[in-house]
């Protein structure tokens, strides 16, 4: 196979000197593989195999678990720290959890690449994450329909909550008003005041895919937010 662009999503030790890795690849989506020898001291591959660093890889194997054959660096890693780093860790954990193996997700790869360019700048982080979440949901055919259960338009004056089973919105207290949802349906995600509703929609749509096990990165972000509040210790 030709070397394929990829990013490391997750890595853990495997046997004495190898690692089990989860990769996001351009043409094959999430690929799980053994990277042999990368835990060995002085391994050049160990230095290359880092989160947020663009790679070119090849692999062999017919089963779910592949074996990496070639792994080359293809540029510098995104320099992330603090909240930007936590956002990147969230994206990696999310994609590892929700993407099935070897489902082609070229749009997800594209939005992930753009996200890494944006995360060092605080003002762009929320939008970059929402676009990545949207791409993942669309690839999994789990994106909300932005209609009522019968396919009708949402009433701008009523409030709605997402029904994950039908991917439609049903009237409900404490939900999001129909006017806002209609803006989101048109793709007006950058309109003032839509950051919170957009996050609520993607979180509700992702919940069934994630199941009951919480995301560790989400808990770390919550802890960081608490420490930043006035009077917190």
From TrEMBL:
Residue ranges annotated as coiled coil are none
Q: What is the top-level taxon of the source organism?
A: Bacteria
Classification via InterPro entries: DNA_rep/recomb_RecO_N, NA-bd_OB-fold, RecO, RecO_C
Question: What is one Gene Ontology biological process annotated in the Swiss-Prot or TrEMBL record?
Answer: DNA recombination
Gene Ontology cellular-component terms listed: bacterial nucleoid
For this UniProt record, give its keywords in alphabetical order, as a comma-separated list: DNA damage, DNA recombination, DNA repair
> Which part of the chain is the DNA replication/recombination mediator RecO N-terminal domain?
4-72
PANTHER family found in the cross-reference section: DNA REPAIR PROTEIN RECO
Name the family.
Belongs to the RecO family.
Its job? Involved in DNA repair and RecF pathway recombination.
This protein is called: DNA repair protein RecO
The species this protein belongs to is Halomonas daqiaonensis
């Amino acid at each position: 196979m030709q070397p394929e662009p990829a990013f490391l999503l997750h890595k853990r030790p495997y046997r004495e000197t190898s690692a089990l890795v989860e990769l996001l690849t351009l043409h094959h989506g999430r690929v799980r593989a053994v990277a042999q020898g990368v835990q060995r001291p002085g391994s050049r591959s160990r230095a290359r195999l880092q989160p947020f660093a663009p790679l070119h890889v090849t692999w062999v194997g017919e089963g779910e678990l592949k074996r990496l054959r070639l792994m080359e660096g293809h540029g510098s890693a995104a320099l992330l720290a603090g909240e930007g780093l936590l956002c990147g860790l969230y994206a990696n954990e999310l994609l590892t959890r929700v993407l099935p193996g070897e489902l082609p997700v070229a749009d997800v790869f594209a939005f992930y690449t753009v996200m890494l360019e944006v995360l060092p700048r605080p003002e762009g982080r929320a939008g970059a994450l929402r676009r990545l979440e949207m791409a993942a949901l669309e690839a999994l055919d789990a994106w909300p329909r932005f209609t009522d259960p019968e396919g009708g338009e949402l009433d701008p004056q009523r409030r709605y909550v997402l029904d994950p089973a039908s991917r439609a919105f049903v009237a409900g207290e404490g939900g999001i008003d129909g006017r806002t949802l209609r803006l989101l349906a048109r793709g007006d995600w950058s309109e003032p005041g839509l950051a919170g509703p957009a996050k609520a929609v993607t979180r509700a749509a992702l919940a069934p895919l994630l199941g009951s096990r919480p995301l560790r990165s989400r808990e770390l972000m919550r802890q960081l937010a608490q420490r930043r509040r006035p009077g917190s210790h």
